[in-house]
Write a structure and sequence with these properties.
Strand content: 15-25%
Radius of gyration: 26 Å
Number of strands: 14
Largest sheet: 6 strands, parallel
Helix content: 40-55%
Number of helices: 17
Length: 436
Amino acid sequence: MLRILDFGDPEVERLLDREFSFPEEAVRAVEAIIARVRAEGDAALCALTAQFDRVTLAPEELAVQEEEIIAAYREVTPEFLSAVRLARDRIFAFHASRVPDTWQERHADGAVLGQLVRAVARVGVYVPGGRARYPSSVLMNVVPARVAGVEEIVMVTPPGPAGKIDPHVLVAAREARVDRIFRIGGAQAIAALAYGTERVPRVDKIVGPGNLYVTLAKRAVFGSVGIDILAGPSEVVVITDATANPRCVAADLLAQAEHDPAARVLLLTTSREIATRVREEVNAAFTALGEPAALREALRFAAAVVVPDVATAVAYANRFAPEHLELMVAEPFAWLEKVKNAGAVFLGNYAPVPMGDYIAGPNHVLPTGGTARFFSPLGVEDFLKRTNFTFLSPEAFAKLAGPAALLASVEGLPAHRLAIEVRKEKRGAIEGEGDG
């Protein structure tokens, strides 16, 4: 189930192609959902929840109440609560270690330049749900927003059977200090966050992963509201030399393959023996897991590529720009500086991607589909906005006015030049003028 390729095989170049298209019918369906929510508000949310989630809710039932959250604590184990709190604290500590702040610098001529750094006021967090549970998504999206100082965090997640939200998700939300929770999902939840309804408040930015319809909805509302990234299928590149443990490598490939039938998993190894043994371990583990159909589909895209050396593997990984990159080689830190494009890097034999997914501390919301070439993991910066400020003393203005006026003339903007020239003419008499 795992193809073994030589680095010179033309198929290796084709592995770089991860173009994902959006079906036109899905685009139109999302546009219709957004328009309906904007026009009908909570009534549309209830109707669409009944249609897509098979759950009947009255408008007043959209919001999760305090007693439901309290009850959720009685449904989870003490071990789960302890694990959530450990993960929360580690994620908080990682993100709190580097928080941008307001700054200014004063120049000798009296100019003062700088930036105000302010948190986004209200953030919407989408957490996949329904028949699944993702408390880790709650923590990874909410905790950095809290570190940034966001005033209000609104969470949406699809309801499960009978409208119930998984208690593990509710507990994670409370531990991360989510302010309000609504049992809505899909494109309709994104529309509600972007434009507001009678009960769902309009937010300034939406973060969190979802299915195709959620992704399309985020793309459609961008501009009216900020978004994080348009997430694609999960992916991992594992680089090994002959020292790697084949069973661990196989497990790491399967861990990402089980995320999505379209997941991309790739092994780059300097050892053909390792490639062969990893293939055997993948086949054995796949059988032991019950041969799930989604995993089988993802493994159709999987490959092990035999490379001449680790340098070649790292260079190819930089072109691939994977969401996750594992360096399972004898000296992983020796190669870290060579990594140019990756969402997250996992070094050594004891740092598999799932540790980063849950508890290590760095964020697991990562760029996919090669976008690590220009996007970064979700972090505190995503919940902050910068405002530049400028003060010019008369001396600083005089020094800069001539060049600025020249540039205004070159660009053919006479009113821009006027706004400069009028101050040159009035220099020394501007302050206090017009007060009476």
